[in-house]
Amino acid sequence: MNKKQARSILDIMASMFPDAHCELNHTNAFELTIAVLLSAQCTDETVNKVTASLFQKYKRPEDYVAVPLDELEQDIRRIGLFRNKAKHIQALCRMVLEKYDGSIPEKHEQLVELPGVGRKTANVVVSNAFGVPAIAVDTHVERVSKRLGMASEDDSVLEVEKKLMKLVPKEEWTDTHHRLIFFGRYHCKAQNPQCSICPLLDVCREGKKRMKIVSNRKSI
Question: Is 212 considered catalytic here?
Answer without folding.
Answer: no
